[in-house]
């Protein structure tokens, strides 16, 4: 019964969103969505010999090292933000001498490696808005954006009140509809994680086979900078068709209309 009511709520939201898009003339390029996901960056699939050896290793806790990522882009898939990475340490030893501004991720930290309203506000003002403004300038688009978010505790409800370099309209999805409405949950994040696991798994196997080191020795050397490289590479590996296709649950009519309007 609850699931049925959530679906009805999602339908109402879709209609409301469609009206906003049409009334305010938002092209698909200027409709954005982002979502957080946790990543255990040293965790391998549980049914592999690697996982079995990992579990038998004395005092091994690497698989429990977690970080949070914020991933997303626009509904045409040609704009993807540099991932926001939240870690539990501001300055890990492996990052000594490395400029955070030069990294392929946006680096932030707090003790629990969770998204907070303060971190989200900083990302929104200092990274999202300037990146969208530059995207609009490059593509000759009106400088504005429609940002769709879920009602997570780390997403401030007063975002629209903050001063930014371009006007952004914020819309929050209804409670308990994330699995239905959240575009990034329609395969994008799962796709990214599959690429990350495959890439890291391959590096581990090659190291064990080539250098005859143990899995425990490999993980000891595999630091957060290695994870960042794999995160950036895996995010870039996600195809534009995947980033665009995840929006079909809401915006298929809008996208079709845009294509039709462009025909001679």
Q: Kindly report the average pLDDT value.
A: 87
**Looking across the biggest beta sheet, what order are the strands in?**
4-3-2-1-5-6
Helix content: 40-55%
Which residue ranges are poorly predicted, with pLDDT under 50 across at least 5 consecutive positions? 252-264
Instruction: Write down the oligomeric state.
Output: single chain
- Put simply, the count of helices is 9
Can you describe this structure?
The protein is α/β, with parallel strands linked by helices. 47% of the residues lie in helices and 14% in strands. The protein is built from nine helices and six strands; from the N terminus they run αβαβββαββαααααα. Strands 4-3-2-1-5-6 form a six-stranded mixed beta sheet, covered by helices on one side. Helix 5 (188-211) crosses helix 7 (224-237). The model is unreliable at 252-264 (pLDDT under 50).
Q: Which structural traits does this protein have?
A:
single chain; 264 residues; 6-stranded mixed sheet; 14% strand; globular
How would you summarize the topology of this molecule?
Layout: H1 2-23, E1 31-40, H2 49-56, E2 66-74, E3 84-87, E4 106-109, H3 117-139, E5 145-149, E6 168-172, H4 178-181, H5 188-211, H6 215-221, H7 224-237, H8 240-245, H9 248-262
Parallel strand pairs: 1-5, 3-4, 5-6
Antiparallel strand pairs: 1-2, 2-3
Helix pairs in contact: 5-7
């Amino acid at each position: 019964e609850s699931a049925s009511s959530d679906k009805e709520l999602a339908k109402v939201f879709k209609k409301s969103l469609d009206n906003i898009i049409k009334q305010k003339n938002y092209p698909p390029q200027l409709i954005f969505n982002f979502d957080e996901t946790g990543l255990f960056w040293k965790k391998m699939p549980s049914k592999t010999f690697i996982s079995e050896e990992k579990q038998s290793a004395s005092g091994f806790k690497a698989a429990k090292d977690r970080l949070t990522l914020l991933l997303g882009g626009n509904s045409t898939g040609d704009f993807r933000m540099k991932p926001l990475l939240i870690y539990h340490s501001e300055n890990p030893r492996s990052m000594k001498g490395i400029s955070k501004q030069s990294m392929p991720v946006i680096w932030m930290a707090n003790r629990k490696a969770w998204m907070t309203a303060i971190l989200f506000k900083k990302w929104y003002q200092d990274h999202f808005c300037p990146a969208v403004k530059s995207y609009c300038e490059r593509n000759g688009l009106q400088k504005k954006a429609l940002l769709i978010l879920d009602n997570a505790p780390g997403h401030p409800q007063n975002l629209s009140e903050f001063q930014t370099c371009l006007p952004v309209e914020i819309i929050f999805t209804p409670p308990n509809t994330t699995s239905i409405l959240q575009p990034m949950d329609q395969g994008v994040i799962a796709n990214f994680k599959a690429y990350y696991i495959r890439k890291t798994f391959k590096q581990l196997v090659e190291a064990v086979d080539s250098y005859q080191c143990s899995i425990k020795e490999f993980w000891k050397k595999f630091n957060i900078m290695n994870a960042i490289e794999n995160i950036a590479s895996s995010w870039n590996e996600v195809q534009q068709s995947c980033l665009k296709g995840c929006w079909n649950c809401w915006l298929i009519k809008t996208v079709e209309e845009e294509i039709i309007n462009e025909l001679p």
